[in-house]
Amino acid sequence: MRSARLWARLLGVEQAVVERVEFDEDAEAIVVAVRPRKGVRRRCGRCGRRCSGFDRGEGRRRWRALDLGVVRAYLEAEAPRVCCPEHGVVVAGVPWARHGAGHTRAFDDTAAWLAVHTSKQAVRQLLRVAWATVGRIVTRVVADAAQATDRFAGLTRIGIDEISYKKGHRYLTVVVDHDTGRLVWAAPGHDATTLGRFFDALGPQRCQQVRLVSADAAAWIAKVVAARCPAATVCADPFHVVKWATDALDQVRREVWNAARKHGQAGLAREFKGARYALWKNPEDLTGRQRRKLAWIAKVNDRLYRAYLLKEELRLVFRLKGVRATVLLEAWLAWARRCRIPAFVRLARAITERRAAIQAALTHGLSNGLVESVNTKIRLLTRVAFGFKSPQALIALAMLSLGGICPSLPGRG
Fold it and tell me: Pairing relation of β-strands 157-166 and 71-78?
């Protein structure tokens, strides 16, 4: 094998000619001078279209390649500019690196793979780069993958939710495909305008193909889905509905606790205060002490115990699903309306207002559980992404990890 071909294979360089190899004493690095082959010269760095030359640019430049052994390596080549009919005057594209990058494709792909599969410290030490640089690399890799793959193909059942990624009420809106379990879209913000950008990217034709959308009870989500996907049915997330019942139960507990305090029953108030977890937990998860606490509540305060039974029966509705769940929900609403517990009377009114979305969840068995699972993983990634300069880098890392677009390691595809 000729030495030029050997160097090209070592560096993962394709469609390029190796001219010479030198060792830069000042940089303590191997510098490989290359040039693109004739067929890929003078192409726009953004769209790849063959263009007329404009000027020589700023002369020769270097791209960081993967280390060779313990020594850093760089590719060096001319960086002329071309005149693209669409993008104007831009630096000509090169086959070994993405447009605007200071690293080779092999280096970018390795950094992206390591960011997903290893720790922050491992990436920094192994590649000898700053963590902010890794953030820019993963953003670049995801943008390149987004052009090469169709993330929105076949979307018919989606889940929408928001997640806080930073202090100061900074949120991301995320969209997950229920059929593949993958994150398909995310963007900063949690309002109708932000969600509208997703449907803009999806396009009118594919919006018509969406049939089911799971979400919490946020009015802005339902409004945008109704406007952009008229054929879609919104399914209310059962977890959020049961959480409303848990909140109503806790409101009743606080009322009973405050009433005991006002009447000077300090011991009784203390017992009600300590009953919070016994009332919140699922019956199958209760400890022996918590079971005794519930039995005590049933004896001393009928109103609080009825509130507990209302919460548990609503939870049973979503465990049954289908026709049985529909019948039980109707019975639950009738009981809640006449229970004479204000918090649950209001809850019955709220559920009635959202009855269509709740009924759809019971009929189709769709919840936001998968979306919440993705959100949990994104919360872990926010810790990994600490030090990135923009939410776009966090989103890119999430897309690599949860969107199924993480590149393979170079030479292992």
Answer: unpaired
Q: What is the DSSP letter of 329?
A: H
Task: For residue 50, list its beta bridge partners.
Answer: 43
Task: Flag whether pLDDT at 235 surpasses 80.
Answer: yes
Residue 1 has pLDDT above 80, yes or no: no
- Rounded percentage of the chain residues whose pLDDT exceeds 70: 99
The SS3 assignment for 83 reads strand
Calculate helix-pair angle for 105-117, 391-402, nearest 10 degrees.
80
Quick check: 152 and 201 in contact, CB under 8 A? Answer: yes
Whole-angstrom distance, CA of residue 196 vs CA of residue 350: 26
Which of 353, 342, 258, 267 minimizes the C-alpha distance to 306? 342
Single pTM value for the model: 0.84
Instruction: Quote the pLDDT of residue 2.
Output: 64
Alpha carbon distance 300, 373 (integer Å): 40
Assign 10 to helix, strand or coil: helix
Q: Are 41 and 17 in contact (CB under 8 A)?
A: no
Higher pLDDT pick, 383 / 91: 91
What is the b/e burial string over 358-395, where b = at least 16 CB atoms within 10 angstroms of the residue's CB?
bbbbbebebbbebbbebbeebeebbebbeebeebbbbb
Distance of CA 347 to the CA centre of its chain: 31
Residue 387 has pLDDT above 80, yes or no: no
